[in-house]
């Protein structure tokens, strides 16, 4: 093994470990490794810079900018109530079909964000029985077309970077529809038993925790918890007391209240009014002088600047005209001061908001608003209809090869700007810089892995136990490896790392690379058994009150069927020779 190969192997091992640890931005990690290769002259500056003009990368950027306009359409949101009417199985079929179809052409993250609120507020079925199948349907719908998910576009960018034939809009459909139908059948058969109904929304007690600060002049000071009645509030339960650097839990009835204590309550956050009757107790938001009757529930979005920062580090009032009064992380019990809670993607927050909250331009980038209608949707439904019709027209024209897909998307974006459906400021704020960095850097990393022979060595190791099973064995192992990677890290990162290995496997076997590349593409969308593999899973975790066990129990059958159908169908539509 050469020195260059040792360095590339070591850097890739470090990259995988850091992606799994999820402590740093994936874009920064990929860019760091690509920069290392550039400094070591494993790739020329000219070749590295060329990756930023990759046709596939430009398509990703244009399409994601278009979805900023398309996401404002409330069509699917308005349909949600009709989709969930009727018996549960029938509602499941309607919801699954509509979500998968919608996600085949629109960003599945936006589809999930649009449906969380309406499904959470419906009275036909428990939200816990709807959010997970909806989320999985959105992921599955993404494998029906090239534009269904950014992972498909990333793989297409990698193909373009290797000067290989690029994928067309509906090349993924034959295999994708078989997977979607098979997984849908599993859901309809198993989910009525696997997904348990939670109590109706008005009867459910939330897993939020909120805190009240004991002021120096509070009349409760020097009295016991039981004496002042803090243990018998009905809708709120005193779970712990934060006293300086100490956390007192459980809280005994004879525990005295001290000045400066932070009393942490769990329960129905909408009954925060129960604490208002205690003089000298101040809810977190009172320090910001915001009205307590204007509550909004949000989920921390993927890519939010709030992730991995404590609430104390974030100046909520100046950034959002809001203050956090309660936090929830799935079914996990959080403790300690709210101000010291380190936020994670998928955390649910209850905010007290001011008059300017809905006018802030950074809401959609940081939050998914689930307690009421998304604030940036088109008020005029005709605008949403026009934007959708324009998008469908471009899709149809490109499918019949009347216009080039990328040119059609660029023309549509120009029309949106000219007609006022899109604003330059909105587009500028929402440029997917991290995804651009991941794609461009992964193109550099892929080139280096192939040129240094690392991809070939990894392929040889991968094929070590599959030679007796032939190409199907190699395809199965590649599917399995990509699936495991995408459960441990983002699907884009998994696809970027597995792509050069797929080329190495094809080269070792002397077969067409397309079935192995398709294994990477489909396998990278098979993220169902943990909430961490894909951002939409995180988005539904708190609103659906799901645990890791819920994802494993409901996601494993889907993942197994997904991979089994993919293994059989891929060679049929993408032959080995």
Automatic annotation (TrEMBL):
Major place of residence: membrane
One of the record's GO molecular function terms: monoatomic cation transmembrane transporter activity
RCK C-terminal domain sequence ranges: 197-281, 283-369
Alphabetical UniProt keywords: Membrane, Repeat, Transmembrane, Transmembrane helix, Transport
Top-level taxon: Bacteria
Coiled coil: none
One GO term of the biological process aspect: potassium ion transport
Transmembrane spans: 52-70, 90-118, 130-149, 169-191, 384-400, 406-424, 431-449, 469-486, 516-534, 555-574
Membrane topology field: Multi-pass membrane protein
InterPro entries attached to this UniProt entry: Cit_transptr-like_dom, DASS-Related_Transporters, RCK_C, RCK_C_sf
UniProt-annotated location(s): Membrane
GO CC annotation: plasma membrane
Protein name (Swiss-Prot/TrEMBL): SLC13 family permease
Origin species: Ideonella livida
């Amino acid at each position: 093994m050469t020195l260059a190969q040792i360095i590339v192997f070591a850097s890739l091992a470090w990259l995988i470990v850091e992606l799994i640890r999820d402590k740093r931005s994936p874009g920064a990690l990929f860019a760091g490794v690509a920069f290392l290769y550039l400094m070591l002259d494993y790739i020329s500056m000219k070749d590295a810079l060329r990756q930023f003009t990759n046709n596939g990368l430009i398509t990703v950027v244009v399409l994601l900018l278009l979805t900023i306009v398309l996401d404002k359409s409330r069509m699917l949101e308005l349909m949600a109530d009709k989709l969930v009417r009727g018996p549960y199985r029938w509602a499941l079929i309607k919801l699954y079909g509509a979500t998968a179809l919608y996600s085949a052409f629109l960003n599945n993250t936006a589809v999930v964000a649009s449906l969380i609120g309406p499904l959470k507020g419906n009275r036909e079925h428990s939200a816990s029985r709807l959010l997970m199948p909806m989320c999985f349907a959105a992921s599955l719908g993404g494998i029906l077309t090239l534009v269904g998910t950014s992972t498909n576009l990333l793989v297409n960018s990698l193909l373009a970077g290797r000067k290989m034939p690029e994928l067309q809009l509906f090349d993924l459909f034959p295999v994708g529809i078989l997977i979607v139908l098979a997984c849908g059948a599993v859901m309809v058969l198993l989910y009525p038993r696997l997904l348990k109904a939670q109590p109706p929304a008005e009867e459910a007690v939330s897993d939020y925790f909120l805190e009240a600060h004991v002021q120096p002049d509070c009349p409760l000071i020097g009295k016991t918890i039981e004496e002042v009645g803090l243990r018998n509030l009905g809708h709120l339960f005193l779970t712990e007391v934060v006293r300086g650097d100490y956390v007192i839990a459980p809280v005994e009835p004879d525990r005295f209240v001290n000045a400066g204590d932070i009393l942490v309550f769990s329960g129905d956050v909408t009954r925060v009014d129960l604490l208002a009757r205690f003089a000298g107790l101040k809810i977190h938001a009172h320090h910001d002088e915001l009205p307590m009757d204007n509550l909004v529930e949000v989920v921390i979005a993927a890519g939010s600047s709030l992730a991995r920062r404590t609430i104390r580090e974030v100046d909520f009032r100046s950034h959002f005209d809001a203050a956090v009064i309660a936090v929830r992380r799935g079914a996990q019990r959080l403790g300690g001061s709210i101000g010291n809670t380190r936020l994670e993607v998928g955390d649910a927050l209850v905010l007290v908001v001011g008059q300017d909250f809905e006018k802030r331009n950074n809401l959609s980038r940081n939050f998914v608003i689930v307690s009421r209608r998304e604030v940036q949707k088109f008020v005029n439904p005709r605008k949403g209809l026009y934007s959708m019709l324009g998008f469908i027209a471009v899709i149809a024209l490109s499918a019949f090869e009347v216009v080039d897909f990328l040119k059609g998307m660029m023309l549509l974006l120009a029309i949106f700007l000219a007609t006022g459906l899109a604003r330059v400021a909105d587009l500028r704020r929402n440029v997917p810089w991290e995804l651009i960095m991941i794609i461009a850097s992964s193109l550099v990393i892929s080139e280096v892995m192939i040129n240094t022979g690392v991809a070939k060595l990894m392929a040889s190791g991968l094929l070590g136990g599959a030679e007796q099973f032939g190409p199907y064995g190699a395809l199965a192992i590649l599917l399995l490896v990509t699936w495991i990677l995408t459960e441990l890290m983002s699907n884009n990162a998994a696809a970027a790392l597995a792509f050069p290995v797929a080329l190495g496997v094809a080269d070792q076997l002397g077969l067409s690379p397309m079935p192995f590349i398709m294994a990477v593409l489909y396998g990278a969308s098979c993220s169902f058994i943990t909430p961490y593999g894909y951002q939409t899973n995180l988005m539904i975790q708190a609103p659906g009150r799901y645990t890791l066990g819920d994802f494993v129990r409901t996601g494993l059958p889907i993942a197994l069927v997904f991979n089994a159908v993919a293994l059989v169908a891929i060679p049929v539509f993408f032959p080995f020779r």
